[in-house]
Specification:
heterodimer, A: alpha+beta, B: alpha/beta, Peroxisomal Thiolase, Chain A, domain 1, 2 domains, 6-stranded mixed sheet, 5-stranded mixed sheet, globular
Chain lengths: 207, 378
């Protein structure tokens, strides 16, 4: 196996959308979560009506993966060679609270389905036709060494050729943070950053 | 090459508090599914498989006097029982705990004492409780991948051991039946009004169950035979629909193919997901045919204990391992007349055959699938 490399990385926080650490779209008007997601959606001329039915966690994961893969040539690998490894702190608690409030009236299946965090992996998989390995981890705080190790294992021991890996969090107070990396084996031309624990933990994730 | 063995296990369901009690009850054809009239779970009576809470509190008081939720008691007791039958050291830095759950303590949201700031609502908190209970120094891992969580947790544990990161992984899974979960499945119209009937032509939905299970994975050579090895596993996504199974069985087929790649002979039997929803069971029949496994005996044990969500993959793997050792495939409770999109070899009565291996499969919301192959050493 060649060394792994980060082809591109994307972060979404309340102040801005960043690509490879550079601000691509600032949230200058400090719009709320829903407005900022819609703003990014229109800025990148996305056309995917299902987006508007998603809960906050899936919207955030969808938007981050959309920007991450917008110029990716999806034909280079088979669908079953593309994996998604995501972690967060609150699982689907933001939507759990909303669903729980609806129980006493009419429980909504459209809300209930989003009370599982891995639904966001389903949404990303559907849109980008990714059929490979799936894992959703829940961690008190981002455990970068664990995620880097797990992604390495996938490349070493499975048919995985590409991993969308990172952190997608929306908490009960609507605080949100997305950080997604497009990880592949190095071909020496496309290197943005080494897939390195210290670099990710101390620099890329915090930018 | 590092091999990963199932060293010790435990299953807690409506049928009992040990793996042996559960296996014996299933062998005898006893179902733990009853009609519940508990209106804290549902205003209408519904079939469900529930753990005996009085016995849970009694047994738990034997290991700890601390206050805990039912979910916490279930996972701690299950891990305790599995570790009691094991030689591994739970407090070693070479031992890791993995927790598999879909909803953890979500029922705290609708209890008076609960609010959304309660730290016990966080799944990592439950996992941290688990590892601290056994004085384990390593940050515990939580996997939450809907109905495939348990099997994904076992596959993850296997990979970490094979990678040399740990010698032992304690994989514990659990979920409790709550109003949150019952109302959600009711809103989806996926609960059957009768105990579920996997693979039957008259099946009309699933039955929920609660429970916990633990399996201890280790790289140590087994001290006694027969022993069961977790040989291979894979996960996949249908990339098709977030709440409905693939019509072509695509994701499950992909995962089976990866798991059985390079394995010469077909598995001795398949412990299927078999939820008894019309679409899930049809999907499985299509995937098994695509994989050329239509002749292999297939069962689902959800007719005995319902769908135990985050515990299901572990419970079904442990019961399947029991079948390997005893050369006895448990029947599919609730199945009378097979009615599936494509023919497969479902088991209506216990089947005594010489077994060397079995395939465990699971599929769930989010389009997720997981499969694993277990092989017996004699």
């Amino acid at each position: 196996m060649n060394n792994l490399t980060i082809k591109k990385y994307v972060s979404v926080k309340s102040d801005a959308l960043r690509i490879n650490g550079e601000i691509a779209l600032a949230n200058g008007s400090s719009a709320d979560f829903g407005e900022f997601m819609k703003h990014i959606y229109h800025f990148y001329k996305v056309s995917y009506l299902k987006f508007f039915k998603m809960d906050a966690l899936s919207k955030l994961g969808f938007i981050a993966s959309k920007v991450l893969l917008i110029d990716d040539d999806s034909s280079r690998f088979e669908p079953e060679e593309k994996a998604i490894v995501v972690a967060n702190r609150s699982s689907s608690l933001n939507t759990d609270v909303k669903y729980n409030q609806s129980i006493s009236e009419i429980p909504s299946p459209a809300v209930f389905v989003y009370t599982l965090p891995n639904i966001l992996q389903g949404e990303i998989s559907i849109h980008h036709n990714m059929k490979g390995e799936n894992a959703f981890f829940v961690q008190e705080k981002p455990d970068v060494p664990f995620l880097v190790n797990y992604v390495n294992i996938l490349f070493k021991t499975t048919r995985t050729k590409k991993v969308i890996a990172g952190w997608i969090e929306v908490d009960v107070n609507n605080f949100y943070q997305a950080f997604l990396m497009d990880v592949e084996e190095s071909d020496n031309n496309s290197l943005i950053a080494n897939f390195d624990i210290d670099l990710i933990q101390n620099q890329l994730f915090t930018e | 090459m590092t091999r990963v063995y199932l060293e010790s296990d435990n299953v807690i369901t409506s049928l009992g508090f040990t793996t042996g009690q559960n296996f014996s009850a299933m062998e005898a054809g006893i179902s733990g599914i009853h009609i519940s009239e508990n209106n804290e779970l549902s205003l209408n009576p519904f079939p469900v498989s529930l753990v005996d809470k009085i016995r849970l509190h009694e047994e738990f008081s034997g290991i700890s006097k601390n206050e805990h939720t039912d979910f916490e008691k279930l996972i701690l007791l299950s891990a305790h029982k599995a570790l009691a039958g094991s030689a591994i050291n739970p407090s070693s830095h070479k031992t890791l705990f993995i927790l598999s759950t879909t909803k953890g303590n979500v029922d705290l949201l609708h209890k008076k004492s609960g609010n959304n700031q309660d730290v016990r609502l966080y799944l990592w908190h439950s996992a941290d409780l688990l590892r601290r209970f056994f004085n384990n120094p390593n940050q515990a891992v939580v996997i939450s991948n809907a109905c495939v969580s348990g099997l994904t947790a076992m596959i993850t544990g296997m990979r970490l051991i094979k990678n040399g990161d740990y010698d032992n992984v304690v994989v514990t899974g659990g979920d409790v039946v709550s109003k949150f979960i019952v109302s959600g499945f009711q809103s989806f119209l996926s609960l059957s009004p009768q105990p579920c009937r996997p693979f039957d032509r008259n099946r009309d939905g699933l039955t929920l169950g609660e429970g916990a299970a633990t399996v201890i994975l280790t790289n140590r050579n087994p001290e006694k035979l027969p022993a069961v090895e977790l040989v291979a596993g894979a996960t996949s996504n249908d990339a098709n629909h977030i709440s409905g199974p693939s019509r072509t069985g695509e994701g499950l087929f992909v995962a089976i193919n990866k798991t059985l790649n390079g394995i010469g002979e077909p598995p001795g039997f398949i412990s299927a997901h078999g939820t008894a929803t019309p679409y899930n069971d049809d999907m499985e029949s299509i995937a098994f045919n695509r994989a050329g496994l239509q002749e292999v005996p297939v069962n689902s044990i959800k007719g005995f204990i319902g769908h135990t969500l985050g515990a299901a993959g572990i419970i079904e793997s442990v019961i399947g391992a029991g079948s390997l050792v005893k050369n006895r495939v448990i029947k599919t409770a609730g199945l009378q007349n097979q009615g599936l999109a494509q023919p497969i070899n479902t088991i209506k009565e216990n089947l005594d055959i010489t077994l060397r291996s079995f395939l465990k499969t699971a599929s769930g919301f989010g389009g997720s699938n997981a499969t694993a192959l277990f092989v017996k050493h004699e």
